[in-house]
Amino acid sequence: MKARRGGPRALSIAGSDSSGGAGVQADVATFAALGVFATCAVTAVTAQNSLGVHAVGAVEPRLVRAQIDAVLGDLGADAVKTGMLCSREIVAAVAAAIDRSQPPNLVVDPVVRSTSGARLLDRGGVRALRDLLVPLARVVTPNLAEAAVLANIEEVHDLSTAEEAGRRILRLGPQSVVVTGGHLATDPVDLLVERAGVRRYRGRRIGPGAHGTGCVFSAALAAYLARGTELDEAVRAAKRFVEDRLRAAARLGRGRYHLDLRFSAPSRRRRP
Question: What are the structural domains of the chain?
């Protein structure tokens, strides 16, 4: 990839998280920590904290598209990452803007529900995601529950069903799929599913878990792709980034832990 004046840049298209642990805030912090200039298009405003999501207000689809067009038409992006999209209308607006501008390295994080169980994408939005946005993606990054929804299967609970879901999602048209395995009963294993085959990336379970790990993984993946990293190494590097930040995670409120997304490298001291 030809070097861009001012360095690599990435666009996050996602909802705002008032707790700072996920969504646009986590994406921007991740991009910055990895040396990538961050831009954003906000799709929704949420009232949430470490205990869960308390309210959601969607941004008008035309305003979402206007944000994307404004950024890509001027600053451009070496990677675009989508997160919470709320509704069928917003998914359609995002897909139209992406299809028009054709940015490289679209990473689709198919956010359907929050960790606390709040629904963040309506049923029409799921269908639009499958039909309109997923086919444009360089890589789609569902967790186990999201993979089941996109693949239209009842449950993904082990590596075999995760691989089958990944293959079904691949048939929707993206170039590749990473099914993240943080919710497996065993130590986490992420699967990169491509037409050429499947690769497994084994990890270790670290600490009690944290809010926003899926957002941060997909944002880190987008950042590495923006920097010109090949996909296999980008997946490995994004996985290491999340693991490093998990080791330094802190319980800032009364609920789930927050990843440490500050610019300085976190401590690698393993949590007891």
Answer: 9-247 (3.40.1190.20)
